Amino acid sequence: MAEHLTVRHASGQGVEDISLRVAAGEFVVITGRIGSGKSTLVRGLLGLIPHQAGDIRWNGVTVEDPASFLVPPRSAYTAQIPNLFSDTLAENVLSGASEEALERALRLAVLDRDLHELPRGLETPVGARGVKLSGGQIQRAAVARMLARPAELLVFDDVSSALDARTEAQLWEGLGRELGSACLVVSHRRAALLRADRIIVLSAGRKVAEGQLSELLRTSPEMRELWEEGQA
Ligand SMILES: Nc1ncnc2c1ncn2[C@@H]1O[C@H](COP(=O)(O)OP(=O)(O)OP(=O)(O)O)[C@@H](O)[C@H]1O
């Protein structure tokens, strides 16, 4: 879906000449150190920041305006620091999706266990004027919102602040079991790396390795270091 993509911030930093593909149903992890360009790459890919060179494609066809095209039912995204609207938790998760989707979305996002702690459960007002949720709860609510409507491609930018390692493994396993969507996941966690069909390793804005975990652990020093430092 990206061919030779270059995305630079005003500072000049960013990612250079990255090509990546995600096939239907595939689970692809983008990993790398802090500041290696993982968020810049997914934000550029989704058209949330402009790219300076390269091409974004969907089923082989160039996408002229990714920001308006890569939305449900094609693609959905959870940002590293998402926002909730000033409304109830239920409305934030549903925002127009069907009620039947709610229970599954809450369960898959591992938010169901938090509901009894909230003063009014799903009817608790959240967002700027509502009850203050933890950073993890906000991120899980955003994941639940993403899962409440079908999308062929789910993009997660680092959910590790929302989920402990075991719960993150549960999320990836649940997605695999219950949804057929392709996943593009930014993560440094072993839970994600172990689940990955393919891993893309970034370093200083460049793709330095790509492949399956076992192969990368043999061939990529950067992957080996990341794995050994892994906090999972
Ligand atoms: N909005 C911005 N404006 C200017 N430079 C930025 C901006 N966001 C990121 N950068 C720079 O671009 C480079 C890549 O950052 P990016 O956030 O994509 O890395 P990352 O791998 O996602 O890191 P993290 O693990 O912290 O999320 C870094 O050098 C960073 O300082």
Automatic annotation (TrEMBL):
Keywords: ATP-binding, Nucleotide-binding. The keyword Membrane does not apply. PROSITE patterns: ABC_TRANSPORTER_1, ABC_TRANSPORTER_2. One of its GO terms (molecular function) is ATP binding. Residues 2-229 form the ABC transporter domain. This is ATP-binding cassette domain-containing protein. It comes from Deinococcus lacus. The lineage of its organism: Bacteria, Thermotogati, Deinococcota, Deinococci, Deinococcales.
